[in-house]
Amino acid sequence: MTAQQRIVLGIGGGIAAYKVASLLRLFTESGHQVDVVPTESSLQFVGKATWEALSGRPVNTSVFEAVEDVNHVRLGQDADLIVIAPATADLMARLAAGMANDLLTNTVLASRAPVVLAPAMHTGMWENAATTANVATLRSRGITVIDPAVGRLTGKDTGAGRLPDAEDLFAAVQRFLPPPTQQKPPGEAAPPSGETALTGRTIVVSAGGTREPLDPVRFLGNRSSGKQGTAIARAALAAGATVRLVAAHLETDVPEGVELSTASTALELRDAVTEACQGADAVIMAAAVADFRPADYAGTKIKKVGEDGAPTVSLVRNPDILAGLVGHRRQNPDAGPGLIVGFAAETGDTHGSVLEYARAKLTRKGCDLLVVNEVSTTLGFGTEDNTVTILAADGGPEARFAGTKDEVARGLIATLGTLLNR
Ligand code: C5P
């Protein structure tokens, strides 16, 4: 159950401040108490009234307001976590120098809580030697500085410096919140199950599609975007887990806060997943792994021969990584992971329904859970929404989740949390 934590949410003076309203919402909707501490200049972008309305608490910027509460010390001492977004170049410079010339910098200095900074600024400012040195100083003191996202900036140019989306920031800071220590009083609404169900757990998630090279310029690939797998990684982070994301080719951003390893081919993915599974509690194989790879790799680009000639490509089987994990666990029951989750992108036909094929696959693969989604050219791959049915090998009830890929991911993670904590 989510214990209420006290979060100080510092707001720097950058245009990305408007995005932080959504982050505040995510914190308060999860039951946390949030004191917003904007810098004076940030109020040019988002006013005090917005922060007071969304947090339900008074908002001050200066040490000379609410002096009777000794705010400049109390806020920092009471905080379980300090999150500052957007962290501007100026604010980070002041923090690195140990300055205390407003309520926010005072609060950071007086606090022993973990501090997470989410910088946002123009690429030029982010890459400036002064900022780089300040970030290094802050990191050396144990402050977490999240790398900014790359993309369209405030003007017409693009580059590193965007504030990550609120959902990503929310997921990235979960692991800095202390594990639950107190139960909510009886009668208070319970949070969605699974919300902090994975605190202290390590979850491996594979995502995206593998590519099997034919020659230096061509490959056999698939249509997986990695959106469902990265959504699962985000949901697991939000549930408090340490997440090891093994990424094949993605058409989406890597969530902030994961331990990332990358792989291109099925064989590389097998090695990366095997390594990531060491000491992990669960593995979720959401990656679309090529079943076959070209038998031969041409070291130079395959040339056209004659007018209509075309080469014949021979394929060989790739190892089934999921089945390999199950087999390894069977031989070494203590090695884990305790829960092995497979995915099945299925289509029905005249011989059987999607679920009939999926049940057969669950038995064949021997994993604990199988997440089944019906695919067609418009369902599943690359889309924003998804519908899945989760089948359990122990005959447990089927669960069905539909909605955005983030919503489906939260459903899966809640199911996983329940099973791991059983
Ligand atoms: O047999 P099928 O490819 O439908 O199985 C899908 C599941 O098996 C997914 O979880 C996928 O990540 C995994 N898989 C694997 N190794 C393969 C092929 C699929 O681990 N070579």
UniProtKB/TrEMBL annotation:
Residues 1-202 are annotated as: Phosphopantothenoylcysteine decarboxylase. One of its GO terms (biological process) is pantothenate catabolic process. Residues 203-422 are annotated as: Phosphopantothenate--cysteine ligase. It comes from the Bacteria. It catalyses: N-[(R)-4-phosphopantothenoyl]-L-cysteine + H(+) = (R)-4'-phosphopantetheine + CO2; (R)-4'-phosphopantothenate + L-cysteine + CTP = N-[(R)-4-phosphopantothenoyl]-L-cysteine + CMP + diphosphate + H(+). Keywords: Decarboxylase, Flavoprotein, FMN, Ligase, Lyase, Magnesium, Metal-binding, Multifunctional enzyme. CTP binds at residues 291, 301, 319-322, 343, 361, 365. One of its GO terms (cellular component) is phosphopantothenoylcysteine decarboxylase complex. Its EC number is 4.1.1.36, 6.3.2.5. Pathway: Cofactor biosynthesis; coenzyme A biosynthesis; CoA from (R)-pantothenate: step 2/5; Cofactor biosynthesis; coenzyme A biosynthesis; CoA from (R)-pantothenate: step 3/5. Binds 1 FMN per subunit. Residues 198-416 form the DNA/pantothenate metabolism flavoprotein C-terminal domain. The keyword Lyase applies. Pfam families: DFP, Flavoprotein. The keyword Flavoprotein applies. In the C-terminal section; belongs to the PPC synthetase family. Catalyzes two sequential steps in the biosynthesis of coenzyme A. In the first step cysteine is conjugated to 4'-phosphopantothenate to form 4-phosphopantothenoylcysteine. In the second step the latter compound is decarboxylated to form 4'-phosphopantotheine. NCBIfam families: coaBC_dfp (TIGR00521). This is Coenzyme A biosynthesis bifunctional protein CoaBC.
